UniProtKB/TrEMBL annotation:
UniProt entry keywords in alphabetical sequence: Coiled coil, Golgi apparatus
GRIP domain mapped to chain residues: 952-1002
GO terms (BP aspect): endoplasmic reticulum to Golgi vesicle-mediated transport; Golgi organization
Coiled-coil regions listed: 69-351, 703-836, 880-959
GO cellular component: Golgi apparatus
Protein name in the entry: GRIP domain-containing protein
Subcellular location: Golgi apparatus
Annotated Low complexity bias: 30-41, 622-635, 1068-1082
Natural source organism: Anopheles coluzzii
Length: 1097
């Protein structure tokens, strides 16, 4: 049956090859682990074309011959339907192109409308400037407000003084915190220096251990070379002595040296297997070292990333130093201005105290402009309060105007984004047209393949065609369903696009409305800009002073950042030292791997030599009796089992080492995660400290809201771009169309909600602007009536004092022009300071985050660095100790091999006396050298031969022994002899206690007479002496001696216990039987009995 199996396998292989060669172009046939060229091309088309979907027709067998034409026609109809669908998609794409053209035209019209609005805005601005020049003549009438402004300025100055004192207190608290941080930094520096010293000591200790290990390896190499030289010398002496000996006649005493030679050979084999086991262990250790090298490479990459981080921190520190200098200069300027203001305030207070009463000029101005007298302070206060309310309303109107400008800018950006989306959609349509063309090409290719299948591959139809038809139809139905699903998704996407376009039109309409309202609000607000100049100036001064105070607080923080940067540099140095230690360890591992390879080469040479000796001794063993061969095979089996156990133990030790390395790597990873978490925590703490230390800025929330709004708009633009990419990916890959369509639907809903919210907010804003405009119109009308009355009175006064009015008008015009110029300059300065403030805030936040990262790293390093170094040192020491232990074991193994080689010399000298056997061994050596590469096969054959020999020899030996024992039992002269023979029979037949009790072996009777047949065989005297000898010697040894004695030739055979032939041939056979009994004895001592028929002597 075993011979028939391979032939059948070959036959089936030939059949499979023939069928494969015949069907290699089939589109539907797919044998096991074999894919045809057509299916490969079909898969390639599936990968290139997004319309192919997950359906793979290459794995379906053909249908029956009777229905193939129907299937081909059905497939043809389906392909035609797909072509029609593709044409419909092309038409829809053309419609989309037309709509996109219309949208682009609308965009152009909107751009033109916006330009027209800008021109109208410029005209309105020119008109407002003209009206402002007319109103500048009336500014002279408002000189009475200067006193009120002076009073307000004094109040504001007092508030600024109080705020400045609070800021000084905050600055003092910040200085105290900085001192604490400096103290902690000094402690960290001392700790880093201590850790660096410990690292240096650890590196020196590791280098000493590395040098010691190198010396030990050099000694082991010299010992191996000496051993190799001795082996070569032994080989030469063996060859010389083998040629000098003559052929000798074998004698009965020769089996003893042969047994000794076999024992020595077994020892050599044991040593060889030990060396091989050590080689396997070294190979596993080399693999572990390679893994540790990979870990070292990862650590080097981490070091490089840390270096990059350090360079970035240094760059930031340089920039912060420059900014700190600028802030110091600004702080000095602020202090000087503060001192000047205090002096001016003191002078004004002194001047007021020295004045006896109100100025007459001031009273005259109040009477001219307000028609009030200084004796009516209540009415004057009411008029001043009304003026302040008007200023507040102007400020609110200005803020609304700024918001409207922002909305216009946002709408312009939205228009640009829509234009970009239109261009993207145009490019997508072109891509879709290309994909449709590629799909048509794929359909043509499929038609050609169907024709080829129809014309050339009809003979490949098998009996399972009906099942393939069902599967094919199912796949076609799936393809139809998928196609319908894709069409629905495409229509849904088209509908969503139309909704987006409609929303765009609504948004453009709202933009035009907002622009018209903006032009009206600008026309109203330009008349009020003149009164806002002083308020803006005061606000800018306050913002500048606040920024300067904030910069003063940030200077100390910058110094701390510099110190932390230096500490980070020290930390990086320590990390580099650690990386150098890791590299040295890798070099040590590399040296160990090279030494392992050297030892493997030497061990291979020793193995070849031992195998040669093994082949010689095995040939000698084969030339002896079959019993010796069986003993050697049994010992060899036992030795292989022992070697297997040793290999398992070595594997367990290597597994333990691997687990230790994995634990070490896991520990490092956890520590890195802890470092990162601590850095994040300290970042948050520093951010909170910064926010607490910084004074409240009235404009910062508004600026932050503007920044968040800008980021939101940027995110929205990026989001719309990603949505366009998702649409493109949906049309290119039909397999993921459904999931991406759902995502796109959700995103469009969110966008629509956002646009709806924006539209509602804009409407609310317009309503608020309209209401404020109405109120301001009423107020302006009232003021206009008052002003007209004042103008009439002034005209009457002008007629009375023309000269005074002319000079006053000239001064008023000059002051108005000066104020206008100052107003423009302050507007420009405000914009510049706002931009600088935003940039400075961003940089300050980044620098504070970097400072927090450094502080976190230093604190974490202070807590965990010492423990990390201790763990690394302990692991390195344990690895060195393990390496030293392996070196000692290798030295012991080499000593054992050397001793075994010395014993082998003695055995070879003893074996040289058997010249005829050596001649046969030399011939066998020549034949076995060619079979060194087939050692595993020889070992398997040897085990099979051992089993066969055991099976055959066991039956033969048992049969002979049982026959002789039965004859001896039959001719035994008395019951005592029969009792002893029965014990031997029970041992040979491996009887248990019950069986021995049945045959009567457990009776405790006394042995009388002359001591039994064994005593007479062994030469004993009385029965007591025979009992003592029986207790001292084992039953097996007694029986062997009995067989040796009975194997000698005798004159008569009447008194013999066993009927043994006395011829020379019979003597030789008896010697062989003795050898077999010895072999059976050896096997019984090393192996448990496997059956009731095994020999257990």
């Amino acid at each position: 049956l075993q011979s028939v199996g391979p032939e059948q396998h070959v036959g089936s292989s030939i059949t499979t090859t023939t069928v494969t060669s015949t069907l290699e172009d089939s589109w539907f046939w797919d044998p096991d682990n074999n894919i045809s060229s057509t299916s490969s091309s079909s898969k390639k088309d599936d990968n290139e074309s997004p319309s192919s979907g997950p359906t793979d027709l290459t794995t379906i067998p053909l249908e029956a011959p009777a229905s193939e034409s129907d299937i081909i026609e059905r497939l043809q109809r389906q392909l035609n339907e797909k072509l029609q669908q593709l044409k419909k998609q092309q038409l829809e794409n053309a419609l989309l192109n037309e709509k996109l053209g219309q949208v682009s035209g609308e965009n152009r019209e909107l751009n033109e409308n916006i330009e027209e609005l800008d021109r109208q805005h410029e005209v309105v601005l020119e008109n407002l400037v003209a009206s402002k020049r007319d109103l500048q003549a009336q500014c002279s009438r408002l000189e009475a407000e200067l006193k009120a402004k002076a009073t307000e300025s004094e109040t504001a100055l007092q508030q600024l003084q109080a705020r400045f004192e609070r800021l000084e207190q905050t600055h003092a608290q910040t200085c105290q915190d900085n001192e604490k941080l400096r103290t902690e930094t000094a402690k960290l520096t001392a700790e880093l220096e201590r850790i660096v010293c410990e690292n240096v000591e650890a590196v020196a200790a590791l280098e000493r251990q590395l040098q010691e290990q190198r010396d030990e390896r050099a000694t082991a190499d010299e010992l191996c070379q000496t051993l190799q030289a001795e082996i070569e010398e032994l080989r030469q002496r063996t060859a010389d002595e083998a040629a000098e000996f003559v052929v000798a006649v074998p004698t009965p005493e020769q089996p003893a040296p042969s047994a000794e030679l076999v024992a020595e050979l077994e020892q050599l084999r044991q040593a060889l297997e030990d060396v091989r086991t050590e080689r396997d262990n070294l190979q596993k250790l080399t693999a572990e070292l390679d893994r540790s090298e990979h870990i070292g490479q990862l650590e080097r990459e981490i070091g490089e990333l840390q270096n990059e981080l350090r360079s970035v921190i240094i760059d930031n520190s340089v920039q912060l130093e420059g900014k700190a200098k600028e802030y110091d200069e600004k702080l000095a300027t602020l202090r000087q201005e503060n001192q000047t203001l205090r002096e001016s305030l003191a002078n004004e207070q002194t001047a007021k105290q020295s004045e006896p009463g109100p100025d007459g000029r001031v009273g005259e101005i109040i009477r001219q402009f307000f028609d009030l007298d200084l004796t009516e302070p209540d009415r004057l206060a009411e008029r001043l309060q009304a003026t302040r309310d008007l200023d507040a309303k102007l400020a609110a109107l200005e803020r609304k105007l700024i918001d409207a400008g922002k909305e216009i800018n946002f709408l312009k950006a939205e228009n640009s984004r829509i234009q970009h989306d239109k261009d993207t959609l145009t490019a997508d349509l072109m891509q879709y047209e290309k994909e449709c063309a590629s799909l048509m090409k794929n359909n043509d290719r499929l038609l050609e393949e169907l024709e080829n299948v129809k014309c050339n591959k009809l003979e490949t139809i098998n009996e399972n065609a009906e099942d393939s038809i069902v599967v094919l139809e199912k796949q076609l139905d799936d393809a139809h369903r998928l196609n319908r699903t894709l069409e629905e998704e495409y229509r849904e996407a088209h509908r969503k696009l139309e909704e987006v376009l409609e929303e765009k039109e609504e948004l453009l309409t709202s933009v035009s409305t907002l622009e018209s309202s903006e032009s009206e609000s600008k026309a109203r607000t330009l008349a009020l800009e003149r009164s806002l100049a002083e308020v803006r100036k005061e606000r800018d001064e306050l913002a500048e002073r606040l920024q300067q105070l904030r910069d003063a607080g940030g200077q100390e923080a910058e110094q701390l950042r510099t110190e932390l940067t230096s500490m980070q540099g020290q930390l990086t140095t320590i990390n580099e030292d650690h990386a150098s230690l890791v590299r040295k360890l890798q070099q040590l591992q590399h040296t160990s791997s090279e030494n392992v390879r050297t030892w493997e080469g030497k061990l291979n040479e020793m193995r070849q030599l031992l195998e040669a000796r093994e082949s010689e001794l095995e040939q000698a063993r084969e030339s002896t009796a079959a019993a010796e061969q069986q003993q050697q095979l049994a010992a060899e089996s036992e030795r292989y089992r022992a070697e297997l156990e040793q290999q398992r133990e070595a594997l367990e030790s290597l597994t333990q080492q691997k687990e230790n390395l994995v634990q070490l790597v896991t520990t490092k990873h956890n520590e890195s995660v802890q470092y990162h978490a601590e850095i994040q925590r300290l970042n948050q703490l520093l951010q909170a400290e910064t926010e607490r230390a910084a004074p409240a800025c009235p404009d910062c929330p508004a600026l932050r809201e503007k920044l968040h709004e800008h980021e939101r708009l940027t995110d929205q633009i990026q989001f719309l771009r990603e949505k366009s990419d998702i649409l493109t990916a949906n049309l290119m890959t039909e397999q993921s169309n459904q999931r991406q369509a759902l995502q796109e639907k959700q995103l469009l809903i969110e966008q629509r909600d956002g646009l709806q919210r924006d539209l509602e907010r804009l409407r609310q804003h317009l309503l608020e602007i309209e209401e404020a405009h109405t109120q301001e119109t009423v107020e302006l009308q009232r003021r206009y009536d008052d002003t007209r009355q004042q103008l009439a009175s002034l005209e009457r006064e002008v007629k009375q004092s023309t000269n005074a009015l002319t000079s006053a008008s000239i001064r008023a015009n000059q002051q108005a022009e000066t104020l206008q110029a100052q107003y423009q300059l302050l507007l420009q300065q405000r914009d510049e300071l706002g931009a600088r403030l935003s940039a400075a805030d961003d940089r300050d936040q980044k620098n504070q985050a970097a400072l927090t990262n450094l502080q976190c790293a230093l604190e974490q390093f202070q807590m965990n660095r010492e423990r990390d170094i201790e763990l690394a040192t302990g692991s390195i020491r344990s690895e060195l100790e393990q390496a030293r232990t392996r070196e000692e074991a290798l030295k012991d193994t080499l000593k054992q091999v050397q001793q075994q080689l010395a014993d082998a010399k003695t055995g070879l000298l003893a074996a040289a006396r058997i010249s005829d056997q050596l001649e046969i061994s030399q011939v066998t050596v020549a034949s076995l050298k060619a079979e060194l590469t087939k050692r595993d096969e020889r070992y398997a054959a040897l085990e099979q031969r051992l089993q066969e020999t055991e099976a055959s020899q066991a039956d033969k030996v048992e049969k002979t022994l049982v026959k002789n024992l039965v004859i001896g039992y039959a001719v035994a002269p008395n019951a005592s002899d029969r009792q002893q023979i029965m014990k031997l029979i029970s041992s040979v037949l491996t009887m248990d206690q019950n069986e021995c009790t049945k045959v009567g072996l457990h009776h405790r009777g006394t042995v009388g007479g002359t001591g039994g047949w064994l005593n007479s065989i062994l030469g004993g005297g009385g029965s007591g002496e025979a009992g003592a000898n029986y207790n001292k010697e084992s039953l097996t040894e007694a029986f062997v001696k009995f067989l040796e004695k009975e194997s000698a030739p005798r004159a008569t055979a009447s008194s013999s216990l066993l009927n043994i032939v006395t011829s020379p041939a019979a003597a030789t056979g008896t010697t062989s039987s003795v050898g077999e009994q010895q072999q059976q004895q050896h096997r019984w001592q090393h192996q448990p009995p496997r059956s009731h028929r095994s020999v257990a002597i």
